[in-house]
Design goal:
Layout lengths: L15 H5 L10 E2 L3 H8 L4 H27 L20 E5 L9 E5 L8 H21 L11 E7 L6 E3 L4 E4 L13 H15 L7 H23 L9 E2 L14 E2 L8 E2 L3 E2 L15 H4 L5 H14 L7 H10 L9 H16 L3 H12 L7
Parallel strand pairs: 2-4, 4-6
Antiparallel strand pairs: 1-5, 2-3, 5-6, 7-8, 9-10
Helix pairs in contact: 2-3, 4-5, 5-6, 6-8, 8-11, 9-10, 10-11
């Protein structure tokens, strides 16, 4: 990183705007990696081997969504959380992994604590490593001490439910299902899924984007962006070498698709009899108006996803160093409204690029990227 690329938020000293934004989420957010429209399609298939797990997952997700609504309503006026790390202490991850033992009770049985050796359960080890990698990216890449900026312990539960076909952030921890073995595999397999879900936590503690319509699509897109950055970071890839796929490793043998989503080419991740056709647009010309999935938050996220891909690949090199920094600056800078639409977010990315890098290639690249997907970013 060059001098003008240093994170604006150090691990020990953060801006007043970032600190002020650390509060319980006032919006009822329950975030899953597999969109409900995919599970709904699966639930209507004639093959019960595929349909029954999807139906159970949909029902379980609906119950969790209701639980989050109730919990967040109860904490809406809570005071900001105190720092979770002692003053002057070095920022290090504090991970705990639990095993739900295929039940739907959280957190489950503790099976691995911070600093303990790997055991014989690969899901436990992958979850532990993925949480650590996410912590490392946010600390070393952006100077952020855990997802809340204050050393929040990272907890995760594996082996959740019976053939549970999803992974989610519930506002407090990560949860991984084992999948059904046919359409979806163990959700600890793709590191970008772990990064995606934990980034919902970062958003919760910063801009707190409302989970509906364009703000909700931005919420999902930001998680895809940092999930993809995590995969590239762990692989040591430059933007031009990455596949820009989300959840590629979670698809099972019955699926012919490439991934859950493609940031490079939204709408091309899958097209088969099992999952159906990827509905993501890559431009505002194809924006989807729908009442499903909170106004299509997993669908229209393809538009800002492609804008980030175009921005990062235009700059080349490690995407987290410049393109990712601009997105992080917007997310944590204090100016992004919880109700921001694509145009508002785009305008802030142009402003952030100029403030950090000047009126150079970064600003021009981000303006061009948004223009290519049909979103005006201002002059």
């Amino acid at each position: 990183m060059t001098a003008n690329q240093r994170p604006t938020h150090s691990a020990t000293a953060r801006t007043a705007a970032d600190s002020a934004l650390i509060r319980p989420a006032p919006h009822p957010v329950f975030c899953t990696i597999v969109p409900p429209h995919v599970l709904d399609h699966l639930s209507h298939l004639d093959d019960p081997i595929l349909a029954v797990p999807a139906r159970r997952t949909l029902e379980r997700d609906a119950r969790e969504r209701t639980r989050r609504l109730t919990a967040i309503a109860a904490t809406r006026t809570a005071a900001p959380a105190a720092s979770r790390r002692a003053e002057g202490a070095d920022p290090t991850p504090q991970r705990t992994i639990y095993d739900a033992e295929n039940r739907e009770e959280l957190p489950g049985v503790e099976v691995r604590a911070e600093g303990s050796d790997p055991g014989g359960d690969a899901s436990v080890n992958r979850a532990y490593a993925g949480l650590g990698a996410t912590f490392d990216l946010f600390l070393k890449g952006f100077g952020r001490d855990s997802i809340d900026g204050r050393g929040l312990p990272l907890n995760a539960t594996v082996h959740y439910g019976k053939e549970y076909a999803n992974a989610f952030w519930d506002g407090e921890q990560m949860v991984f299902g084992d999948g059904d073995g046919e359409v979806f595999l163990d959700f600890t397999l793709p590191v970008d899924v772990i990064g995606h879900e934990l980034t919902h936590g970062v958003t919760q503690y910063t801009a707190n984007l409302a989970y509906r319509d364009q703000p909700g699509a931005l919420n999902e897109s930001v998680s895809d962006v940092f999930g993809s950055l995590l995969k590239q970071y762990t692989l040591g890839q430059n933007a031009e070498d990455a596949d820009w796929l989300i959840g590629a490793d979670v698809l099972g043998p019955r699926v012919e698709g490439k991934a859950l989503r493609s940031m490079k080419e939204p709408g091309t991740a899958y097209d088969d009899d099992v999952l159906g056709k990827d509905p993501q647009p890559g431009s505002m010309d194809d924006y989807v108006e729908t009442d499903q999935d909170n106004g299509g938050v997993h669908i229209n996220s393809g538009i800002p996803n492609r804008a980030f891909y175009l921005f990062a690949t235009a700059l080349r090199g490690p995407a987290w160093e410049r393109a990712g920094q601009v997105w992080y600056d917007v997310l944590t800078g204090g100016e992004l409204s919880a109700q921001a639409d694509f145009a508002a977010f785009a305008a802030l990315t142009a402003k952030a690029a100029e403030e950090r890098f000047g009126r150079g290639e970064e600003r021009e690249a981000v303006l061009k990227a948004w223009s290519e997907v049909g979103v005006g970013a201002g002059s």
